[in-house]
Amino acid sequence: MASLLQDQLTTDQDLLLMQEGMPMRKVRSKSWKKLRYFRLQNDGMTVWHARQARGSAKPSFSISDVDTIRNGHDSELLRSLAEELPLEQGFTVVFHGRRSNLDLVANSVEEAQMWMRGLQLLVDLVTSMDHQERLDQYRQDGVRVGMDQEYAFSLFQAADTSQSGTLEGEEFVQFYKALTKRAEVQELFESFSADGQKLTLLEFLDFLREEQKERDCTSELALELIDHYEPSDSGKLRHVLSMDGFLSYLCSKDGDIFNPACLPIYQDMTQPLNHYFICSSHNTYLVGDQLCGQSSVEGYIRALKRGCRCVEVDVWDGPSGEPVVYHGHTLTSRILFKDVVATVAQYAFQTSDYPVILSLETHCSWEQQQTMARHLTEILGEQLLSTTLDGVLPTQLPSPEELRRRILVKGKKLTLEEDLEYEEEEAEPELEESELALESQFETEPEPQEQNLQSKDKKKKSKPILCPALSSLVIYLKSVSFRSFTHSKEHYHFYEISSFSETKAKRLIKEAGNEFVQHNTWQLSRVYPSGLRTDSSNYNPQELWNAGCQMVAMNMQTAGLEMDICDGHFRQNGGCGYVLKPDFLRDIQSSFHPERPISPFKAQTLLIQVISGQQLPKVDKTKEGSIVDPLVKVQIFGVRLDTARQETNYVENNGFNPYWGETLCFRVLVPELAMLRFVVMDYDWKSRNDFIGQYTLPWTCMQQGYRHIHLLSKDGISLRPASIFVYICIQEDLEGDES
């Protein structure tokens, strides 16, 4: 594939012209539009830019960082400048993670098309490279990942047998082998190999069963792995695994810490919605802070593409009768409600087929609520769930499977029974005072300014707060205010959902943890960040999941530990945004209390030997010659008693192949709820240690044995080939149930 890339760079007309470079207008806002000279580098992997054709250039982006290319018509920013800049000449480079999009306008339609075709070709080529090819590409520059210069030079001198100062043919092969040698893997290989040269089928099978704890592994499966990972044809024919094949297996998805059986959809998707944790976003329209941040449909695109299944829409009266979305009573910018709905329609099911929930916070007048209802029905069409699945009053929430590719509206509602009979042409324009009071009793807790608006409306006895046309679109997810668990049991139904601030939810867990667990077995709960988090920071979702809260809404625009836990949790089950809760969080008579977990939970002990690291990137690439001093921190998140952390010592001046060989030990009471986070830090005795990379996964998705952990950046983007090599062993406690 790497040779195919080189072939394309010398033959493809688009790529040849891109390597010559050309001027394009870089657009950041309505007021910031500047001419820059863009050029594809000869390696085909990076694009650089300069202020003028022969000016000082600097890297603009790497092809491996690009997610997709969009044309100008799909750019929110370029559409807003359509009268000034021709959309046909514009395109957008969309990056993985949270990096802002790059909007560019070429000098002609042909040039724009050329860059779009060329970039997409390169993205496809890089995406299709296998692990070994990427590894080879990265290894060509050991210094880039923090190899000690003296060590690298000593390897170079040893390989330069001709003493010519350059490496030719076999000399380069020997240097490459020395550079990439994994002594700790060689030692492991030789401990299972009778002759130290190869693993026979039986030897490899012993390794898989004894060390990798794959007890059910058969000779047929071991043979499949040899056939897949052994590079030599003769090895495949003889059913043996060479050292190269063994290392290839250990670096693959089969040798990964994350169990490949948990990657596809492997859970029962036919249970009621309230039996699942649901990936949820808070104030989805914001891509910055909560007070002055930008509102953008990009927030919805990013959330939906990462598997989020519940997005929030705060809707207010806008000019010209068109409702707008923004964070009310702040300086955040505004976007049209209909643009949000159109974006959801386009991106809802690109990552997952399972239902998307639109969490509406409606602050609009009667007229604009009608406009909202019209946009929802006209734009979403068949995707919108506008009646119960069978047209009669249900007895429990439908399952994700039954709701595949459907969009549900969560919001305030008159009554479910009224809406099943409701026909818009028969609806009265006003509600009786008693009906207003009834609605007021069951609506979600309004903000103070909303209460004032409602009281004025009621005094005037004019049009009702809630428009029947919009109410009728709320089918299974009627928003109601929470008073107490007893009140909910006596007055509420399974199709009603309460929202809790993180502060209130955490207090309830401490005061009535078991009641909260039981509440969440029959009704949905949504938790949202405290209003004090104006910087869009996050809370740890684990504490709320422990009580069975299904929709723990996160500020997805903000990277950090909390989003690592969220991303790690929803990485399983096909990344579909739904994870089945453990059975003790689905049993309506559950005795589980997240603060005081007792039997029938069997504690487990986890032993982690942190062995080595591979090609850890520099933290500060601007400092010439800076090399990392890496250490590994392992964190456990789960019930409060299980939350723990330990770390290794640091290795001085070695990011290329540091060796730790240290064992960490954890004891966990409720493994079904535990998450593990591995963090590699750069030790700094003068200040806080710097973050290098992390990987987070559920305990239940962890494979035992010798495993590689492939690190992710703060944004959750792969840092391949950066990894750590560990040995995992889980032991069941012998003394039995906890008390």
How would you sum up this structure, described in words?
InterPro entries: C2_dom, C2_domain_sf, EF-hand-dom_pair, EF_Hand_1_Ca_BS, EF_hand_dom, PH-like_dom_sf, PH_domain, PI-PLC_fam. Residues 147-182 form the EF-hand domain. This is Phosphoinositide phospholipase C. The protein folds into four domains: 1-128, PH-domain like; 146-261, Recoverin, domain 1, CATH 1.10.238; 273-414 and 464-585, Phosphatidylinositol (PI) phosphodiesterase (TIM Barrel, Alpha-Beta Barrel), CATH 3.20.20; 604-732, Immunoglobulin-like. 31% of the residues lie in helices and 24% in strands. It is built from 23 helices and 28 strands. The strands form five sheets. The protein has an eleven-stranded mixed β-sheet. A seven-stranded antiparallel β-sheet has the order 4-3-2-1-7-6-5. A four-stranded antiparallel β-sheet has the order 24-21-28-27. Helix 10 packs across helix 12. The radius of gyration is 29 Å and the shape is globular. It starts with a helix and ends with a strand. Residues 138-145 and 421-464 have low confidence and may be disordered.
User: Radius of gyration, rounded?
Assistant: 29 Å
Structural class category: alpha+beta
Q: Any idea of the CATH topology of the largest domain? A: TIM Barrel
Largest sheet: 11 strands, mixed
Classify the beta-strand content into a percent band: 15-25%
Assigned CATH superfamily of the largest domain: Phosphatidylinositol (PI) phosphodiesterase
The structural domain count equals 4
Helix content: 25-40%
- The geometry reads as globular
Q: Count the helices. How many?
A: 23
Mean pLDDT rating: 88
Look at the structure and give the CATH class of the largest domain.
Alpha Beta
Low-confidence stretches: 138-145, 421-464
Number of strands: 28
In what order do the strands lie side by side in the largest sheet?
A: 13-12-11-14-15-16-17-18-19-10-20
C-alpha termini separation:
57 Å
CATH architecture type of the largest domain: Alpha-Beta Barrel
